[in-house]
């Protein structure tokens, strides 16, 4: 989601190392105030408990947010065994207990059930909308709902460490819509010991990594300074996985006026693997993205114009 008010025209991405205890929306507000950006939005919500990579889009970058949210994400989280909570994390109320504790070998043996295409029921306390209302709002009002299972993709789930009998640390590489809290809950159920998340950190979102991240505190110190530019990534950073097509100045001007252009002249200058029907492409000119576009028939049609 994005906030737009009067302010500076800043275009690009900031990768924030989100601290625990803040909502993603609160981080967006603080970044907008610190930078003076007229428009800002985040590329994928993190729970208040969670820390780590929260990509923030400024200005024209907000038009590319959906491509970041569709990307793969890597998380590291700690599960506490022996207790289930209504939120599936440490912020909720205890609802069940178990004296059982799994061994390392039992945990590893169970992981295969949570890799690949899996069926997952989202946590009751989630932002999923039910009849126009957020599930967490219904749950807080003692009106919890039965959320249906969804098919999601987990590319990798690994046991990183078992620091003691009560805890286990995991790393997960997953697609859109996978809840780490639900993985912890379901692992605890399969192992017969119950479980919930007590620590969660996101290590990457799409092309953005924690090595590029800046803390919220440092960002607020930098404010409007020139040094802030060293942390500002280009709008095109979010589009690394999208085929790029180089346009002439005239072709770019037509697309930016909302007019389709012929695909054949562009195709003659591009690898054939990038030209296929209905594919979304990043139209480039002067070394910058000028539009997100789609190939339909013999034409390239603009989807989102980027004014950079």
Describe the model.
Helix content is about 20%, strand content about 35%. With about 300 residues, the protein is α+β, with helices and mostly antiparallel strands. The strands form four sheets. Strands 1, 2, 3, 4, 5, 8, 11, 12, 13, 14 and 15 form an eleven-stranded mixed β-sheet that branches. The protein has a five-stranded mixed β-sheet with strand order 16-18-19-20-17. It is globular, with a radius of gyration of 22 Å. The chain has eight helices and 20 strands. It has helices at about 25-35, 65-70, 105-110, 135-140, 180-190, 215-220, 250-255, 265; strands at about 1-5, 10-20, 40, 50-60, 75-80, 85, 95, 115-120, 130, 135, 150-165, 165-175, 195-205, 210, 215, 245, 260, 280-285, 290-295, 300-305.
Summarize the topology.
Elements: E1 2-4, E2 12-18, H1 24-35, E3 39-42, E4 51-58, H2 65-69, E5 73-81, E6 83-85, E7 94-97, H3 104-110, E8 116-120, E9 129-130, E10 133-134, H4 135-140, E11 150-164, E12 167-174, H5 180-191, E13 195-205, E14 208-209, E15 214-215, H6 216-222, E16 244-246, H7 249-256, E17 261-262, H8 263-267, E18 280-285, E19 288-296, E20 299-305
Parallel strand pairs: 2-15, 4-13, 16-18
Antiparallel strand pairs: 1-3, 2-4, 3-4, 5-12, 5-13, 6-7, 8-11, 9-10, 11-12, 13-14, 17-20, 18-19, 19-20
Tags for this model:
alpha+beta; 36% strand; globular; five-stranded mixed beta sheet; 308 residues; 3 domains; Archaeosine Trna-guanine Transglycosylase, Chain: A, domain 4
In short:
The chain has eight helices and 20 strands. It has helices at residues 24-35, 65-69, 104-110, 135-140, 180-191, 216-222, 249-256, 263-267; strands at residues 2-4, 12-18, 39-42, 51-58, 73-81, 83-85, 94-97, 116-120, 129-130, 133-134, 150-164, 167-174, 195-205, 208-209, 214-215, 244-246, 261-262, 280-285, 288-296, 299-305.
């Amino acid at each position: 989601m994005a906030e737009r008010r009067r302010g500076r025209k800043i275009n690009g991405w900031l990768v924030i190392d989100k601290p625990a205890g803040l909502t993603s929306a609160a981080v967006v507000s603080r970044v907008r105030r610190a930078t003076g950006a007229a428009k800002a939005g985040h590329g994928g919500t993190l729970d208040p408990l969670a820390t780590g990579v929260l990509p923030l889009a400024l200005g024209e970058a907000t038009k590319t947010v959906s491509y970041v949210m569709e990307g793969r994400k890597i998380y590291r989280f700690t599960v506490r065994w022996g207790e289930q909570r209504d939120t599936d994390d440490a912020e909720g109320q205890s609802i069940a207990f178990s004296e059982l504790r799994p061994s390392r070998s039992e945990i590893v043996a169970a992981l295969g059930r949570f890799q690949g295409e899996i069926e997952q029921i989202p946590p009751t306390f989630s932002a999923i909308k039910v009849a126009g209302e957020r599930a967490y709002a219904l749950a807080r009002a003692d009106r919890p709902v039965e959320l249906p299972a969804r098919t999601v993709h987990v590319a990798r789930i690994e046991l990183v460490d078992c620091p003691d009998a009560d805890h286990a640390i995991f790393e997960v590489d997953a697609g859109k819509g996978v809840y780490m809290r639900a993985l912890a809950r379901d692992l605890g159920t399969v192992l017969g010991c119950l479980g919930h998340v007590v620590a969660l950190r996101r290590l990457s979102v799409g092309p953005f990594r924690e090595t590029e991240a800046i803390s919220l505190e440092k960002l607020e110190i930098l404010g409007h300074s020139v040094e802030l530019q060293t942390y500002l990534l280009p709008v095109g950073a979010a589009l690394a996985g999208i085929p790029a097509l180089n346009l002439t100045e005239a072709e770019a001007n037509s697309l930016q006026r909302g007019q389709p252009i012929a695909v054949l002249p562009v195709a003659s200058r591009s690898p054939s693997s990038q030209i296929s029907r209905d594919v979304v492409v990043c139209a480039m000119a002067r070394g910058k993205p000028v539009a997100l576009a789609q190939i339909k028939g013999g034409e390239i049609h603009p989807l989102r114009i980027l004014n950079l």
